[in-house]
């Protein structure tokens, strides 16, 4: 299994002819506003998994789906039913004002799973925390909820291909019910703290590793570019790696375009 990390929570997981794009969102640095997963990778994608509706996770998902014809899996909270048709929130829409149709869309609720072309995807509970973003001397605050776009449809997913599994937690706070999930690979955010309240910080993420008991850990969604800042959601990944390895687990730090072979 080959795993490529494109910063934020964007990953490409490849095994044989299967190529799973996790959170194909947008780079939010104003000097490089582009797709996190390169466009030349889009046509080969077989599955798309979306953990929630924020731009850095969902912005390009419909375009990747159009280029590839891939199956699309998301949390049920990212969708609505209208005239007997299931719609997903518009990736580039404003708030909750626009919704679109996607072919091969499969929304899941917590505990539900689906098998698609040899890949089993299970929905696991996650909770996106409130955001507090400093902006031009002010702090933009939003709390996820049923009428808010922030964190919409938040869901973690356990993806199983053959005898290997990948658990991606999205932008989540720490959940005790993750105990004993035991994936081959765990992808989790570590960039909370320092005013960032919407994901786990390093300490919470280490607790999550202890609960989940994976073989390999890949930290994500930290030290990312955002607006005019080159480094946002700052975290000490060296400390995280040391403490994960002290638990007897493997840990890989993947920079932009970094690859892990599992």
Describe it.
The protein is mainly β and 262 residues long. Helices cover 13% and strands 35% of the residues. It has a single domain (2-261), classed as Metallo-beta-lactamase, Chain A (4-Layer Sandwich), CATH 3.60.15. It has helices spanning 55-58, 61-68, 202-212, 237-246; strands at 2-5, 11-15, 18-22, 47-50, 71-75, 79-82, 85-89, 99-100, 105-108, 113-116, 119-124, 131-135, 138-142, 156-161, 164-168, 185-189, 216-220, 224-226, 229-232, 250-251, 258-261. The strands form five sheets. The protein has a seven-stranded mixed β-sheet with strand order 9-5-4-3-2-1-21, covered by helices on one side. The chain has a seven-stranded mixed β-sheet with strand order 10-11-14-15-16-17-20, with helices on one face. Helix 3 (202-212) runs parallel beside helix 4 (237-246). The radius of gyration is 17 Å and the shape is globular. It comes from Congregibacter variabilis. It holds the Pfam family Lactamase_B_3. InterPro entries: Metallo-B-lactamas, RibonucZ/Hydroxyglut_hydro, UPF0173_UPF0282_UlaG_hydrolase. Residues 7-221 form the Metallo-beta-lactamase domain.
Question: Would you report the number of β strands?
Answer: 21
Largest sheet: 7 strands, mixed
The low-confidence parts are: none
Structural class: mainly beta
- How much of the sequence is in beta strands? 35-45%
């Amino acid at each position: 299994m080959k795993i490529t990390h494109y910063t934020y929570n964007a990953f490409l997981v490849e095994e044989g002819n299967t190529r799973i794009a996790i959170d194909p969102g947008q780079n939010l640095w104003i000097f490089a506003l582009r797709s996190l997963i390169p466009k030349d990778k889009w046509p080969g994608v077989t599955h798309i998994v979306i953990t929630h509706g924020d731009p850095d996770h969902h912005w390009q998902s419909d375009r990747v789906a159009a280029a590839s014809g891939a199956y699309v899996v998301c949390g049920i909270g990212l969708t609505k039913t209208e005239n007997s048709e299931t719609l997903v929130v518009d990736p580039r829409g404003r708030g909750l004002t626009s919704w679109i149709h996607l072919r091969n869309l499969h929304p899941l609720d917590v505990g539900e799973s689906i098998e698609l072309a040899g890949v089993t995807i299970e929905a696991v509970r996650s909770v996106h925390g409130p955001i507090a973003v400093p902006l031009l001397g002010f702090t933009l605050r939003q709390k996820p909820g049923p009428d808010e776009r922030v964190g919409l449809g938040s869901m973690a997913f356990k993806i199983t291909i053959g005898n290997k599994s990948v658990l991606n937690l999205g932008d989540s706070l720490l959940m005790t019910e993750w105990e004993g999930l035991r994936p081959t690979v765990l992808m989790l955010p570590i960039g909370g703290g320092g005013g960032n309240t919407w994901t786990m910080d390093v300490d919470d993420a280490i607790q999550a590793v202890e609960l989940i008991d994976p073989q390999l850990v890949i930290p994500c969604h930290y030290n990312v570019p955002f607006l005019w800042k080159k480094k946002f959601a700052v975290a000490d990944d060296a400390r995280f790696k040391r403490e994960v390895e002290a638990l007897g687990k493997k840990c890989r730090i993947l920079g932009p375009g970094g690859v892990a072979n599992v």
